[in-house]
Every structure is written in structure tokens, then in C-alpha cells.
Amino acid sequence: MPEGNPVPAIRPALRAATGALLSGAVGAGLLTAATVATAPAAQAATSCSGTASVYGILDDGRLTFSAINPARGDLTKVRIGPDLGFTPKAMATLNFNTVLVTSTAGALYRVDVLTNNNALELSGVEKIADSGWTHDKLTYDGHGHLYGTTSDGTLLQYLVSQDKPQGSQHIGQRKEIGSGFVLKTLTAAGDDRLLATTSTGALYSYKINSAGAWDRDDLKTSGWSAFDQLVSPGGGLYYGRMGTTGAMYWYKDANPNDGSGSDITYHNDDPVNTDGWTQKLLSAQPNTFKCTTTAPETVDRDNIAQVKAAGRNLMAQRNSAWNTAAQWSCLERLWDKESGWRWNADNPSSAAYGIPQANPGSKMGLMGADWATNPLTQIKWGLYYIENRYDSPCGAWNFFQNNNWY
């Protein structure tokens, strides 16, 4: 990285360079040995179109733009623009060429981006409100709602009715959602969905309904305290910046709508960057990419954790309605009981065989000639059987609990 460069260099994160950083992160409260050991490993193959786009503002007031590959977490572009001309306090990205920024004086500005391709150039910075915007955090959900928190922990919602709002006529219907939102970070993660961290390291997910009522899911109770910036472009991608080092980490939530943090994949050994993210504010543009995930073609058949991870991916592919923490829990417990998820589980009292305990095992030949040795073939057959006989994994698990077979 050139000396004095205020933003990270463009490079894939190198695993060999992250060991010391991770050791420091443990001391900072971001990671624990248990977190690193139990964080799910990425098993599925993911292909994406588009990029994760992140705007930011440096300490000297200059706007920045960064692009990240959403499948690999690699930084692919960095652009630095001009000084905005005021002291920023909070920001929210509406679309690729429109960013809202509040000032420390309480004014609201619309920053119009001309291009962020070969250079970051602005077509204008317009003050659209002289006062009243004293929010300490601001975020946009990509579906018409702007959210902000005040210093006393009040969460507010606004309706944004234009791509380039001119003022209160296009940012209105102010609604007070609730109090007690004293948060360290806040970002939108989808349509009326917010993601936040606390000073104690908890990771929360909020869902706001049409009436303004809200529910909170505690995704993680600890481990996220070192992040001073958290942004999400949606799609279950979360980026956390460590203020002490300027490192940017990335995480993938397999189902951001299930209210569970158990399916968040950690990429702690392969961060976006190990340093260089020095912006005082960061904001992700919503809905800039689309990814598809397929289960792996091969898996270490004797590694139960890998086999289970593949099983969850195959379950979601089999029926999208099953892609919930509840359905996965049912399937996991069912095959824990039946076979311990062992591909060579052989019932001595019958012809049942394999992970789903097909009886006889040769039934699984419907999914492939390698049914006797390939756990993926066995899982595919088991899911086919469950769907046709019990409608869902929980249907099969409920039957098993009453009958000790399924």
C-alpha cells in the first residue's frame, strides 16, 4: 500500500497475513477461541452477479467508494472523491448516485454522484434541510424507508418517495418506532429489516412491520464488540470494520430472515482487508448484487460437520419453504437419531442403510449409483422421501418422536 493511502489497497486478502490480526482481535473482544472454532465453514459454491458497493467519508471530509466481490470478499475497486464541504455526522446510501448525509449542525444534504467507475466525481452537493437532522446513525433499507436513531436511543422511520429527494416533500411520514435503541452500529439488511450491534458485542436483527411495531432477534449474544462500523447491502452479507486496525471482515447469513444467527458463516481467516478502512462513516448501497448458491459436488464423507453443512444446503435447494432454522433443527435431530449422519451406518437388524436409513439401502439408487458410499446421494434421496411422505423435515421428525421410526 502506498504510504499515506487512506483506503485499503486492492488485493485479495491473504490468509498468511491475518494470523497476527486475528490474535489481536481476540484481545479486542471481537473473537474468542470458541467463536473461531465453532463458526460454520463455507461449504456451498456461490456465484454472484454485481458487487457490494460501499460509500464512505474520510476524516478530512472526502467521499470514498469501494466495491467488494460478494462471493469471495475481495476488494475490487477503491475511488476517492472530493471534500463534501461540511462536517458529516451520519450517512445513508439511497442508490448508486444518491447519498444522504447529515452534518454536525443538523442539516441534511443530498450528495449526487456523477460516476464511481474510473473516478469518483460528483455532480453536486445540495442542502435539502437546514435543521432537525440530529440523528447519530442513518440507514436506508432499499425499499422506501429511511431509518435513524437519536442520541437518546429513539428509532425513527421516514418514507422516501423519490430517488433524488428535494426535501421534506420527498422525505416524510416521520414515525417514531420506539425507544431503547442505544446501539453501537446500525445498518439496514433488507425490507424493513435492521441489523445492529451493541457495546457489549451482541448482534441484533430487527423487523419493523407496517404499523411501526417491531420484533428483535438476538443473532449473537457476544463477539461483535470490536466493530465500530457495520454495513449490509442486503442478501445476508454483513461487513464489519474494526476501528482499531482498519480491518474489514465479512460474514454471510444463509437465511437472514429466519431470526437465527446459527447459520452465519464467518470468514475470519480471509477478511476483505487487514487494514486501510479508515473512513469515519460507511454506508452500503442496497440491492447491488444477486447470488446463487449450490451445494458442493463433493464432501469429506467422514467429516460430520461438513456432511451436515451440505445437508442444510441441499435441504434449502429441495424446497425453499424449508430454509428455516426450525426445519433444519428437525432434520438434524432426525438423522442424528437414525444414523449420526454417518454414510456407512448399517442397521444390524434390518436392511436399513446410510444417513437416512433407507430400507433397503438400494432404494437410494434412485439418486445415483454411488448410493452406498456418497453422503450427498443419500441426503438427496432422504429429502425426496421426506417430502413425498411427510411434507417437511418437521413432519418426519414429529412422526419419528411418536413412533421411533419414519
From TrEMBL:
Residues 108-260 form the Tachylectin domain. Pfam families: Tachylectin (PF14517). The keyword Signal applies. It comes from Streptomyces clavuligerus. It comes from the Bacteria. InterPro entries: Lysozyme-like_dom_sf (IPR023346), Tachylectin2 (IPR023294). Residues 1-28 form the signal peptide. This is Peptidase S1 and S6, chymotrypsin/Hap. Gene3D superfamilies: Tachylectin 2 (2.115.10.10).
